[in-house]
């Protein structure tokens, strides 16, 4: 009888499942509980079948935990590394550069925090760049038309401006990109490359 009281408690909890996704451990447990509720009392499920289903459930849970640990380890290896990401927000795709300072899981997805304070999904990373890689990335913009971020007084992106990169210099430990108008920007200021 204790099983039925546990069953009714679990079946009354409302949970949402993403449509189109694979079955998770909660879905598996709900199926198992539903099967137990609807089984024929004169022909109940055999113990061996029930034990096999519980073993599958345990195995599924362990695999999901292993995937989470692996994702976290992969994200953690990016800490203190420079990354280039492509983020889509409000229908606009933008480039984001920065050094990863931390990694954490938010609602089942791995996020990386950059030195600018921006949080990006680990899945949005296009490249992990060494010091030489950053330099090569910056030099690749020479002669290119790019959109650069324009900031408001609070330090937030207010608008973007189309400029042409004339040259790249390494000054005081920082890579600076100079436009044909003599304006100076950092790699992190690049919003996107203009379509040719």
Notable features of this structure?
single chain, 196 residues, SH3 type barrels, 10 strands, alpha+beta, five-stranded antiparallel beta sheet
Mean pLDDT: 80
| Name of the CATH class of the largest domain | Mainly Beta
The largest sheet has its strands arranged as 4-3-2-1-5
Quickly count the domains. 3
Low-confidence stretches: 1-15
Distance between the termini: 71 Å
Number of helices: 4
Shape designation: elongated
The structural class is alpha+beta
Write down the secondary-structure element order: HHHEEEEEHEEEEE
Radius of gyration: 26 Å
> How big a fraction of the residues is strand?
35-45%
User: Major sheet: size, sense and barrel closure?
Assistant: 5 strands, antiparallel
How does CATH name the architecture of the largest domain? Roll
Total strands: the figure is 10
Q: Helicity level, as a percent range?
A: 25-40%
Give the CATH topology of the largest domain: SH3 type barrels
